[in-house]
């Protein structure tokens, strides 16, 4: 059962945008945790029937004793998120999302590890690996040639600093950089596997099949034009090459050079037409170069393993020449991006600077899940756009502080150590993920962690366990009515899994009804669906914000204040609360709500402008109702907001190399409103005198 679920989840992760969005994770976690309960529950039932010697295997020690620690680390990270839930984090929804995500990682790691030691488990996991690669690669190729339509699979832009020739491949992940890293991992796995497979007596058919996926992987990697991913892949290539023996390195050189040379031809052709080739002719040309590349590989391998010294040197020389030609062609094709345009690097520098300032607030345990997403608009020093912190390690540092980052790095170290101790060439694949995650948000994708797990499990040889007491990490021996510690622990594990299952179901249903409400045409139906969504998941701010606009002001205030108890620093909840206070006539509370909303999102042009209009309208209303002092206080607060807004725009306009992605500026309407506030304040002051 575990193997079937693993294969199902592997394919689903690829199809569900690499499991980037939490709504997709809820469904897969529900399936995974339900399966784990089904696997464990029979042992509880059997023990109640007093089976005399029941042994349960939850994991296997394998060749390395530290494996058992590695299996528990994802759950330990989830436990730290659970601690945050108990002490009011920055966002209960965000923290709960991360807790569930790490629970999913822990379940997949346990299932994959256990499967690798059972029967044909490794072969099935290897099939799952190739299925993932095939789904990602084939879907992208068909999308490029217009055979299928994949939304956002190709990023088109006229900015040379983002794409050298107007288009970059993003694939099913809808993000070129992470898709490039994933393709880099699959490229290195096939490259090292093919080099290790080849011997002088290896049948050509075997080598043909082994090298078959390599060519499309390299083509897709190149089409992403991700400089960081290319560099990380080169690092992984060097790490893996060091672990190959002498003969394997020779095969490695030939296979790498011929595959790269053929892939570059397709890359240059597709890039020149902005990834919009003719479908039929383009596919024929792609397949022709693909087959030709493999045949050239087989030919040079035969020459390189022959008895003639001259032919061997000729094959190596031809390989080096093809590598130089291929690498040179790539460099000159994207030279401007490699040597001139570094705006994305400067943007990351700004993000990292602001993230470190945020980290200094709570350095040890962080502020819980999705800290950057909620706090970014408050701490940013320039109005850039960046809901992701662009570093998996920095993201963990903000969420769980030094403690959480230490646990995650320790887990990655144990995974790498396991591979290095076995001198596995898959260490190179692991190096690609580890290095690039430092400069991008690859770890926000469940697919990245899935590959980490698959690499860790498949990279080390394992033998199937023959007897129940051979290689078992833990034994549960239940005798008659004796309630042992092991039995209690097993019951606790099932209780935890039940909680995870129920919670993932609740969040999934909440998201389901929220999406349905957005699609509803009638207002009454939409309101009913939003209320249903909040009954399933009261922690999500989005349904509250939408629903608060459909109910009366007093109900909206109650609804939004309840939401702030779950997300106390949510800028959009505070802004909507300020609006609701104004509509409900709670004038004394509007100013403080506006203050908080603008403090949490100061570079929002619309909010800054609307805040001035809101305070002016309230001041006029108070004046008409005869509340002169209240009107004066409100108007003076509006003038203060106007001056802060104007000062902030002046400050940003003087900033050198300003990143104004959010288009923050002083609008003419806001400026006019500010002058109206000043005139109204003078009028009120004159009347008071």
Automatic annotation (TrEMBL):
InterPro entries: O-antigen_ligase-rel_domated, TPR-like_helical_dom_sf, WaaL-like
Keywords: Ligase, Membrane, Transmembrane, Transmembrane helix
Record flagged with keyword Membrane: yes
Cell location: Membrane
Location, primary (coarse class): membrane
Domain of life, source organism: Bacteria
Transmembrane intervals: 28-45, 66-87, 99-119, 126-148, 175-193, 205-223, 229-245, 252-270, 282-301, 313-334, 396-415, 445-463, 484-502
A Pfam match: Wzy_C
Gene3D superfamilies (alphabetical): Tetratricopeptide repeat domain
SUPFAM superfamilies: TPR-like
Tagged with keyword Transcription: no
Protein name: O-antigen ligase
